[in-house]
Design a protein that fits this description.
It holds the Pfam family EcKL. By secondary structure, the protein is α+β, with helices and mostly antiparallel strands. The protein is built from 13 helices and ten strands.
C-alpha cells in the first residue's frame, strides 16, 4: 500500500483492511470504529474500462451502536483499457482517473451545496400530485474518499455500493425502455440544472473553476475511433452510399470545438452517458430511480450533447421515434425545476420547443458517439433507422 500525506492509496484489494477503512470513514462518520472488513472482490459489470471496482462490507460501531457499511473501492487498473483498445495511452488513462477524483472531491460537494432543499422544493410545488425529483444528494453515490497516489498514479474512490442498494446496469447492453429513459433524462436534468445554478451563484464559469471539463486528449482518441468504425459500418451498408459518404466526412474534433465556442447555454455534461454508465433501481419490474456513474470524462457543453448521446446509445427506434418528445418534455420540466423559479437564469427563457430544435441540430454528436462505441455496443437495424431519420432532418 502506497502512502500519501494523510491516507494510504491501496494498490489492490489486499490493502483494504479495517484500520484503513476506519481512516477513510472518519471524516464523514466521526467516532466510527471498524472491527472487520469482508472483501467481496471485483463487481465490474461489462468492460469496466478504466477501473476495477472492489466491493467490501465494513463492520464496526459508532456511538455505541453496531454499524455495517456496504462500500466499493474503485481502483485504477492499467491493464483494463488494453482489452478494448491498444491505442488507449496510459497518460490519458491516468488523466481521466484523476478527473474523477477531482469531480468527487470538489465538484460534487459544490454542486450539492446549491441544490434547493427538499423542504423548500415541496413547499413550492404548485400542482397536486406533481412528482418531485429524488433529493439531489442521491444523484451521486456517497464518496467518502478520493485521491491519487503521486508515485504509482493509482487513483482510489471509496463510495457506497449502489448494487447493494438495488441499483443495476441493464444486462447485455439491452436498450432502455421509455420509463427508464425518463429516469435517466431526469437525472441528467438535475446535474445540468445544478451546474447552471452553481455558475449563477458563484459568478464563475465552470471551465475556470474546474480543469477537468476539457478532455482534449479524449476528443482526439474519439476522432480516431470514429474514423475506423464508420468505415466498417459503411462496408456493412452497401445500399446506403450517400448516407455513408456523409458520415465519413464528419470531423468529430472540429464539430466539438465548434460546439464549445457556440454562444448557446453550456452546462456540465456527463459526456459518456451510455448504458454501461447508467444504473437504475427497480421496485419489482418498475424502474423508480436512475443515477449516472463513471464521471471520468465530464465536459462543458450545451445540454443537448448529453441528450443526443442518451438517445443514440441507449434506446430503441420505437422510443426514439414515438416517445422522444415526452422524454424531452420531462427533461425540460426537471431542468427548470432544479434551477428554481427565482434564479435570474437564461434557462428560464429556454423553451421546450427550443430544446427540441437544439436536440435535432445536435444529433450529429449522438451519432458520432454511438460509432465511437461500436466496438462494445454493436450496431443494429434500429441504429440505421435513427440515422436515416436524422439525415431527413438535414443534420448529416
Amino acid at each position: 500500500m502506497t502512502t500519501t500525506a494523510e491516507i494510504a492509496i491501496p494498490q489492490s484489494s489486499d490493502d483494504i483492511a479495517p484500520s484503513w477503512v476506519q481512516q477513510v470513514l472518519q471524516k464523514d462518520l466521526p467516532g466510527i470504529t471498524i472491527t472487520d472488513v469482508d472483501v467481496k472482490g471485483s463487481i465490474n459489470q461489462w468492460e469496466g474500462f478504466l477501473s476495477d471496482i472492489i466491493a467490501f462490507d465494513a463492520v464496526g460501531t459508532r456511538n455505541g451502536t453496531s454499524q455495517r457499511y456496504n462500500l466499493v473501492a474503485k481502483l485504477t487498473d492499467f491493464k483494463r483499457p488494453l482489452t478494448i483498445s491498444k491505442e488507449y495511452p496510459r497518460d490519458l488513462h491516468i488523466k481521466l482517473e484523476k478527473f474523477e477524483v477531482k469531480f468527487y472531491s470538489k465538484g460534487v460537494p459544490e454542486l450539492l451545496s446549491v441544490a434547493i432543499p427538499s423542504s423548500e422544493r415541496e413547499s413550492k410545488s404548485g400542482n397536486e400530485g406533481d412528482e418531485n425529483p429524488p433529493p439531489a444528494d442521491s444523484l451521486f453515490p456517497k464518496c467518502y474518499f478520493a485521491a491519487t497516489d503521486p508515485s504509482s498514479m493509482v487513483s482510489v474512490r471509496v463510495m457506497e455500493n449502489l448494487k447493494a442498494q438495488g441499483f443495476s446496469i441493464k444486462p447485455n447492453h439491452q436498450p432502455l425502455s421509455r420509463e427508464e429513459m425518463m429516469l435517466a433524462a431526469g437525472a441528467l436534468a438535475q446535474v445540468h440544472g445544478l451546474s447552471h445554478r452553481l455558475e449563477l451563484r458563484s459568478g464563475v464559469p465552470l471551465p475556470e473553476k474546474y480543469d477537468w471539463t476539457d478532455n482534449a486528449a479524449q476528443k482526439i482518441i474519439g476522432t480516431h475511433a470514429y474514423r475506423s468504425t464508420v468505415k466498417a459500418f459503411a462496408a456493412a451498408c452497401p445500399d446506403q452510399v450517400d448516407l455513408m459518404a456523409r458520415l465519413e466526412k464528419l470531423d468529430f474534433l472540429e464539430l466539438v470545438k465548434n460546439l464549445e465556442k457556440n454562444p448557446r447555454l453550456h452546462v456540465l455534461c456527463h459526456a459518456d452517458c451510455w448504458v454501461n454508465n447508467i444504473m437504475i433501481k427497480y421496485t419489482g419490474d418498475v424502474p423508480t430511480e436512475a443515477t449516472l456513474v463513471d464521471w471520468q470524462a465530464p465536459m462543458y457543453l450545451p445540454p443537448t450533447y448529453d441528450l443526443t448521446l442518451l438517445f443514440l446509445c441507449n434506446t430503441s427506434w420505437d422510443v426514439f421515434h414515438n416517445h422522444r418528445d415526452d422524454i424531452l418534455a420531462y427533461y425540460h420540466h426537471k431542468l427548470l425545476d432544479t434551477v428554481g423559479p427565482n434564479e435570474p437564469s437564461g434557462l428560464q427563457s429556454y423553451t421546450l420547443e427550443q430544446l427540441k430544435a437544439d436536440f435535432k441540430a445536435d444529433c450529429v454528436y449522438g451519432v458520432i458517439n454511438r460509432f465511437i462505441r461500436l466496438q462494445v455496443l454493436p450496431a443494429d437495424p434500429d441504429l440505421l433507422r435513427m440515422i436515416q431519420q436524422i439525415q431527413e432532418w438535414g443534420v448529416i
